[in-house]
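Example record

One chain of 115 residues, shown exactly as stored in the release files.
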Amino acid sequence: MSALCDLKPHVLRYWEQEFPQLKPTTRRGNRRYYQQEDVLLIRKIRDLLYFDGFTIQGAKSKLSDRLFVKEATSLEAIQKAQAELPLTSDNEPSSIPQNLSNFKSQLQEILKVLK
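Predicted structure tokens for this chain:
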């Protein structure tokens, strides 16, 4: 999860305490399960804090606007985010060898150009 949002796990835990909108499902062993809307919301919080210069209090007030949250977690936002960075961490095992093969052939082409 932290890789999907480009955050460290302890930051996610802190944000869960600070932002009441973040409520991941917890199961045995206190494992957290996030929905796509949660991932989008976490990314939006990250953008507000790290890129837009908001304080935690400012981000809280921005997220208290229901229309803002609805737009941030809309179907269009999910599709846009999925195109930029997958919202799930599932890697298709069958596509990995294909990607490596493609990468290898691209490297070989670069070597030919450099020679």
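Notes: The first strand starts at residue 25 and ends at 27.
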